[in-house]
Amino acid sequence: MLERYAAGERDFSRQQLSGINLSGANLRGAKLAISDLSAADLSYADLRGSDLSGANLNRAKLSQANLQGANLKTANFEGAVLRGANLSQTNLSWATLKAANLFEATLAGAILFETKLSMAVLPDGTCLD
pTM to 2 decimals? Predict the structure, then answer.
């Protein structure tokens, strides 16, 4: 996948990428809509302006990832670790962040319309019921 990205390909929609290690990868502007990234390691990845709408990111590791301006609409982040991630200017409408860890994440300007945050750890360390 990284070789294809380096060659200029950006559309990786509807891909089965469960458990993939993309830690530190540059995937800026990639289209990963409706892809299965469950249990993937995207820690420190550059996903600015990417499209992850409808993606399955259950139990994914996104610590310190840069998702600024990404489309995360309807994505499922259940049990994901987003500790210290940059989620500013993202669209998280109708996304599921149930039991996600958002400690020290940046959410400035994020759209959180109908976002499900039950049992999540918020950026300030508050745990929701």
Answer: 0.96
